[in-house]
């Protein structure tokens, strides 16, 4: 999470994950809205997530460049492997997805099969498959939720989702003990040449690529393309059950979920999207001269209260002609200057 603010998307992820019997979501946070961080702590208290401090490179003034600007998509690869190596001995399966990719199971949830059982069935039939390629489908919320006039509800959301059968680039679920290296889109290295990646049928598992969940009160909403998003998703998952589970969990931990206290503006998403649009154009015409990362752009002041990672490093050493940087301490600190 380089600049996470979409609390509604977080809730969709958590309650869908619970719905399918998921065990643990590991959240690597570099920076997030303070209110969202409070929400995450409730789920951590409930045992559904673990909050981890994301990797952030050294800011040593003797380095003539920003190390975080030299990595693809904000240390995505580093954080993915931190997860892989920490949990590879204890986890049976690990899913590597973005926050707007929601993993669902057989028949998309009317009679939900737990994730673990679902992938165990696949692994029994394919004992040498180390990685499962999961198809992604674009899903768009027909009417975005607003702070006052149309408030967020998981039940309403799953009654107004529309989707296209046009498949987007896949993401992966891996059997971590068989995997040495991953990217979120495909297997990089297996532990042996006998292991491979296989495509999973979308009737077994699929990813819902969600868009247009929340919007500010005065913003103009993008019109739904009925030709592209022709299928109604109301039959996929019982949003009423998700809503009930969420409310029950909040009551269990005496947490007051006040929708008016959560921002709908998504300022970070808008700024990063504008930055990435420029990067994508450069990639298409082969003029890209830097790593595709949010650090490639300059942002205006945000004046938003956030929780972010603060990292200190030991004094650098020169070892075999290379400069060795080692982290000394990592902590979360509050900032009123936003994430970017």
TrEMBL record:
Keywords noted in UniProt: Glycosyltransferase, Membrane, Transferase, Transmembrane, Transmembrane helix
Membrane topology value: Single-pass membrane protein
Localisation: Membrane
Keyword Lyase annotated: no
CC annotations in GO: membrane
Enzyme class: transferase
Cell division as UniProt keyword: no
Domain of life: Eukaryota
Any one GO MF annotation of this record: glycosyltransferase activity
Main subcellular localisation: membrane
UniProt-listed InterPro entries: Glyco_transf_92 (IPR008166), GTase_92 (IPR052012)
EC numbers, comma separated: 2.4.1.-
PANTHER family, per database record: GLYCOSYLTRANSFERASE FAMILY 92 PROTEIN
Family as reported in the entry's similarity comment: Belongs to the glycosyltransferase 92 family.
Protein name per the record: Glycosyltransferase family 92 protein
Lineage summary: Eukaryota, Metazoa, Ecdysozoa, Nematoda, Chromadorea
